[in-house]
Specification:
Strand content: 5-15%
Structural class: alpha/beta
Distance between the termini: 62 Å
CATH class of the largest domain: Alpha Beta
CATH architecture of the largest domain: 3-Layer(aba) Sandwich
Number of domains: 2
Shape: globular
Mean pLDDT: 97
Strand order of the largest sheet: 5-2-1-6-7-8
Low-confidence stretches: none
Radius of gyration: 24 Å
């Protein structure tokens, strides 16, 4: 089978996401291609891949239509691995393969960054966009067609940002106007949105699962059942993911889907995390098992978030999937991890819904105001990881000053201060449970 995809990244996410998709495509005879994995950093080694001939097992587990589901699959989509730090020539040889069409990447949120200390003569350049530029220049010199690039990094406009970095390196390294034109015209950098919780190597269950597999799989991976991949562009005729039955959307604009994910999934997380923590709850799943917090979550979603976002079949279906994902017994998502850096998260994930609802309907949504009041209460009473400024200001000022602070929230929240202050007082005088009951009344 031909090598048709280069993948920058060896981690759990891509192995539980794209590599799984390609394996299924090949099995269904909808595709005929394998993946070459490129090690994107100089950390670690590729021994686990070479020792196992790049074969590994993936468990997909969760709730589907109200029932627990567990699926195991042996993944064969990776053909080989390349370490450019130990064999730079082998890395550059990939550019000479005319069958290579797609480039996939997941190099963390910090991976798509321009580092002007990188040199074209580095073998390889330290940054991911630098390495990519070296590969693309080799491809250009060989006179071959360009690539379709599908970055999976969790940043806005990931495709456009990656293209910008490549063109910056082309300029810095003086690779010429012809190369820059080739990058612009012969390559497609697609903005994408990915969504799947990949829980990785299941250390607590490894012994039991290894017995089931029959060998010690060092690359063993686990993930939830749900997946979503939104891609700006349409290469379904080359990579028939929709035909294979995957939840993949080819579109002209990824932004509405990003807004849906941020408002519904992230908004649901962030709006319930502090009321739940103050109630003594530890995990997302436990929130769904607690009758009051469960009602609080459903109220936020159905009374406020969905009406503001727009109640369509798509948004309702996504909201239903979020509830099933939160109930997943195989995922122990700690609320304390969701709570990190929550001032900025609240500003992006919840505040737009809160303010738009107030502007549209003329009243402050009580449960979302309580979410904000609970955040402020928690910050005042507990040590938490956030910017030093945010932590200090909230600890040392009264609620009216906190709500006025445009540096914290991006705007003055005086307009919602009456209900938020009432919620804050309820929490601190009557306790969180009574305050939640008030917000639901």
């Amino acid at each position: 089978m031909k090598e048709t995809i280069i993948q920058f990244g060896t981690g759990n996410f891509l192995r539980g996401f794209v590599d799984y998709f390609v394996d299924v495509l090949n099995e269904k005879n909808l595709y005929n291609g394998k993946i070459v994995v490129v090690k994107p950093t100089n950390r670690g080694n590729l021994n686990s891949f070479t020792e196992q001939d790049c074969v590994y097992n993936l468990y997909l587990r969760g709730i589907e239509n109200g029932s627990e589901v567990c699926e195991k699959r042996e993944i064969h989509s990776i053909n080989r691995v390349v370490d450019p730090y130990h064999n730079y020539e082998s890395y550059l040889e990939l550019a000479h393969n005319p069958d290579i069409r797609f480039i996939i990447s997941n190099t963390t949120e910090a991976g798509i960054e321009f580092d002007d200390s990188c040199s074209f003569m580095d073998a390889p350049a330290l940054s991911f966009p630098g390495k990519l530029t070296q590969l693309m220049y080799e491809r250009f010199k060989a006179g071959l067609s360009g690539f379709v690039l599908l970055p999976c990094e969790l940043i806005d406009n990931n495709g456009a940002s990656l293209k910008e970095c490549v063109l910056k390196y082309a300029g810095l390294w003086k690779l010429g106007e012809e190369f820059e034109a080739w990058v612009e015209n012969e390559n497609k950098f697609c903005n994408t949105l990915v969504d799947r919780i990949v829980t990785g190597y299941p250390a607590a269950e490894a012994e039991e699962l290894v017995k089931e597999i029959g060998y010690d799989d060092k690359l063993l991976d686990t993930a939830e059942l749900f997946h979503l991949w939104v891609i700006e562009g349409d290469f379904e005729n080359e990579l028939p993911l929709v035909k294979a039955g995957f939840n993949v959307i080819w579109t002209d604009d990824v932004k509405p889907y990003k807004k849906m994910k941020v408002s519904v999934l992230n908004g649901a997380h962030t709006s319930m995390v502090f009321p739940a923590l103050l109630s003594g709850i530890e995990t997302v799943r436990d929130c769904l098992l607690d009758e009051q917090i469960n009602t609080f979550l459903y109220t936020n979603l159905n009374k406020y978030i969905l009406p503001v976002l727009g109640e369509t079949d798509e948004t309702k279906s996504f909201a239903d999937s979020v509830i099933e994902r939160f109930k997943n017994p195989y995922i122990h998502h700690m609320l304390t991890s969701i709570a990190l850096n929550s001032v900025s998260k609240f500003g992006v994930r919840v505040l737009p819904t809160l303010l738009e609802y107030k502007a549209t309907y003329g009243e402050t949504p009580k449960t979302l105001a309580l979410s904000l009041a609970a955040l402020i209460t928690y910050y005042k009473k507990n040590d938490i990881s956030d910017s030093e400024y945010a932590v200090d200001f909230i600890k040392n000022n009264d609620i009216s000053e906190i709500l006025k602070n445009e540096t914290l929230w991006g705007c003055d929240l005086t307009d919602i201060s009456e209900v938020t202050t009432e919620a804050f007082d309820k929490i601190n005088k009557c306790g969180i449970r009574e305050a939640i009951a008030w917000s639901l009344s």
